[in-house]
Write a structure and sequence with these properties.
This protein has 557 residues and is α/β, with parallel strands linked by helices. It is built from 16 helices and 23 strands. The longest helix has 17 residues, at 220-236. The two termini are 39 Å apart. The structure holds 1-deoxynojirimycin (NOJ) and calcium ion.
Length: 557
Amino acid sequence: MMNDNKLWYRDAVFYEIPVKSFYDSNNDGIGDFRGLAMKLGYLKNLGIDAIWILPFYKSPLKDDGYDISDYYSILPEYGTIDDFKEFIDTAHSLNIRVIADLVVNHISDQYSWFMEARKSKDNPKRNWFIWSDTPDKFKDARVIFVDTESSNWAYDQSSKQYYFHRFYSSQPDLNYDNPEVRDEIKNVIRYWLNLGLDGFRADAVPYLFKREGTNCENLPETHNFFKEIRKMMDDEFPGTILLAEANQWPTESRKYFGNGDEFQLAFNFPLMPRMFIALAQSDYFPVEDIIKQTLPIPGNCDWCIFLRNHDELTLEMVTDKERDIMYREYAKISKMRINLGIRRRLAPLSDNDIATIELLNAIMFSLPGTPIIYYGDELGMGDNIYLGDRNGVRTPMQWSYDRNAGFSSADSEALYSPVITNPNYNYESVNVEAESRLSSSLLSWMKKMISVRKTYKELLGRGDIKFIEQKNKRVFTYIREYENQRMLCLFNLSRSYTYVELDLREYAGLKPVEAISGSYFPRIGELKYFITISPRSFYWFNLTVPERDDSMDFDEL
Ligand code: NOJ
Ligand code: CA
């Protein structure tokens, strides 16, 4: 049964899923809600508390569902409203919450609203969109899909005006200055929350309102609108949450928490690329620096920390120099790039090095915030950079070494996407069944880490973080603290063996116990604490008050 803790999102581990990619229950080659419901046991077993499902609404799929053509219906291939409800009920019976994408900056040009609007300049729906006689307004609004679009305006032949679109030209932006639009979007929200959703991941949050003379991002009007939505959700659907997709510099992204009255969660976009930069340079500075810039936040809010998602690894909010480092290190082939980013999964970005994958996850699981795992990354799934757009990171989930990786019994040609067969990542060995059998697999390790994280409250969102200053820039070092519990975390970002000398006098008398294996380490004293650390490896040390005779330590091993 669902617990009624209103702060549930603070202790949760999230998991991101495109419905079409998870499991195909009726063998038409496309994943669906029934299939998703059948696989909830797997997620429960992994330790997942909440799922984020990607857009499942009716759509011509020109942007994989982020182009909605009817807010009130489900894409038939994914199932019926009853299948959706059944899926939510099953998730809730396992105490798993479900949030879904709320895509309200724009809709599909196939939506009846837009088809009406473009009929004539005096159509009642005309003012639901943003029109202009010239493409010159809002000049300072950047183009986001730079590989495909050269302007944020597209010409509508039938009504002889331009309409504004922040993404593909097939995705006209809604006009938020129109109160009818704002009311309708509130109805959309109510509709899905009434069907049992636990909240939303709000898409493209910064762009809702536009104003001449600004870059049309993060405007006060946009913040106010989300505050109104939050209030409505708190009043009418207590316990539901809003997660912001606001890919911005730290000063702007922090503002989406408001005073604890806007979003409960926001993706930590500034942090994510800097984790990869820190690895590339064997220097923790970029990560520590950005965390200092993104804290503190209001007490009822958390950063959502992620390593990868269904989009390219975006490099919009980094300096030119940092972007060069990222391309040089992680996108050596031009096909690996799209727009201002890198379309690769976590395992290929890590050169399929399990120590690197584990190191990144261990950082994610121990920084203050709510971690979110992208489906398949718990297995070390590969990608296919030749599939176009961002499809290479959206291939079928790999369940077993059966046909189609156990995802579907359709003919392989009928699958919405080919499975990964590259020998380094072949589904025949990278799959749930095979990895469940091996205690040494990435999947088994992820499961273990999630359960360890859950036993130490200081690792969760509400714990404080204290950076330990020391001279070795290769080793990222901090202490997480909550009430009287402490976890000392050390990560060797480099590919060499190294050591640190830590000034831990403040903790003298405490005894580090390695949290995953339970191994005892020498007590902390007045001298510098000396510790060696292998390449790309890490320690989580629970700092305990010794209750026993230390001379027995080795007998315990
Ligand atoms: C962000 C989504 O994550 C991405 O997949 C989509 O293309 C754009 N928003 C436009 O909705
Ligand atoms: Ca299906």
